[in-house]
Amino acid sequence: MAAVGLWSWLQFSERQTNDTVHTVGSRAADQVDVEATVQRVDAAARELVLRVRVIPRGTLGEEGGIAPVSDLTLQTTEATLGDLAYKAHERLATKDVQIAMTGGSISDYPFDTYETDVGFGALVGGREVPVRMLFSNNDTLFATDATPVPSRRGAVVALEVFRSEPSA
Fold this sequence. Notes:
Layout: H1 2-18, E1 22-25, E2 32-42, E3 47-56, E4 61-62, E5 67-68, E6 72-76, E7 84-86, E8 95-100, E9 113-124, E10 127-129, E11 131-137, E12 142-149, E13 155-163
Parallel strand pairs: 2-11
Antiparallel strand pairs: 1-11, 2-3, 3-8, 4-5, 6-7, 6-9, 9-10, 9-13, 12-13
């Protein structure tokens, strides 16, 4: 009975950790929200796939944030393979981006740990605007530890990526 109780508690704790949404950045009325969710970690390639959903708020967006009022560029950290561009008045589509990870070695399995920074800045109509990032993890095989990093230009988290606890 004690083993079942411990297993249940560990499962619940792990699920709660994976369901955590970390919010970092601006709280302005006119800002760009970036929902960034880890979809998959590839330890062998030392990269993760991040699903990015962009929502311009307030005067920066049309129809409740479905499209930007001017061309929108989402600037990323150097670990991300390129910035994201969106045209004015066009529906915003969710995009997957690859992010390089450093540290760790897959040969250290199951104790391999990786690091990277995930961050976004935004330009709307060529003008820098505030950003709020809502970061979460959907990869059940890997857990993440996100620490907000002070930034004058956007929203950034330092990310530690490690193997999830095995389930029974």
